[in-house]
């Protein structure tokens, strides 16, 4: 055989062997295919499509179905597989507490008016709504809004029994109701046009029957003021004075000649 042909054949065989080796190594280094990702079980939950304010009537366009992980979906949520007519069922309800966009709709925060007014619909069982006059000076400068918590103060001016001395009248002030929920300012059950304050002439408070009597009697004996409470107090359930707020003994705070003192409560 011609020597040149032998050389060419040898080079071809060598090149083929190298190519086969490289191809074999490439196959061995290829990463294995990724394992399929396990799909979490989901459920369709009814959520607020837009912000829903306190006292707002729910419309069909205010809610929508949204996919939610089943493991984190509370039993209080409205699920499509359990209540396919959920949108129709909540339409026309009144929000007794605000919803933010994307928040799941819950029956506990809705109420059916069934012909009653808004205020009667949102009042908890056993509670009463009672209104009283306020002014910017007695209503925290207009920064008290519906759903805030307030203390109610009674201020009275008592005639000085010793008129001959020329001493001024005695002014007394005491807290008569604590941690009371504000239902409305004038006729506004929510903020007006996004304002941060509502300056009104009338405030409507949520009271139990005993507190209603206390407030009604206080209106006839002096002027009332509202003191805005911190949002941290919202979880307080007792609407009575705690130990740090109770007057000492049977006295009340009295301002006499510009000096704070204790005096016997007027009978």
Question: Can you tell me about this structure?
Answer:
- It comes from Bradyrhizobium hipponense.
- Residues 43-111 form the SAF domain.
- This is Flp pilus assembly protein CpaB.
- It holds the Pfam family SAF.
- The structure is a single chain.
- This protein is an alpha+beta fold and 267 residues long.
- The protein folds into two domains: 42-112, Antifreeze-like/N-acetylneuraminic acid synthase C-terminal domain (Type Iii Antifreeze Protein Isoform Hplc 12); 122-240 and 249-264, no CATH class.
- Helix content is 19%, strand content 28%.
- The chain contains four helices and eleven strands; from the N terminus they run αββαββαββββαβββ.
- The chain has helices spanning 3-29, 86-90, 118-122, 209-221; strands at 42-48, 63-69, 94-95, 110-111, 128-133, 149-158, 170-185, 202-207, 223-228, 251-256, 259-264.
- The strands form three sheets. Strands 5, 6, 7, 8, 9, 10 and 11 form a seven-stranded antiparallel β-sheet that branches. A two-stranded antiparallel ribbon has the order 1-2.
- Strand 10 and strand 11 form a beta hairpin.
- It is elongated, with a radius of gyration of 36 Å.
- 17% of the residues are buried.
- Mean pLDDT is 75; it is low at 238-267.
Which features would summarize this protein structure in a list?
single chain; 267 residues; alpha+beta; Type Iii Antifreeze Protein Isoform Hplc 12; 7-stranded antiparallel beta sheet; two-stranded antiparallel ribbon; 4 helices; 11 strands; SAF
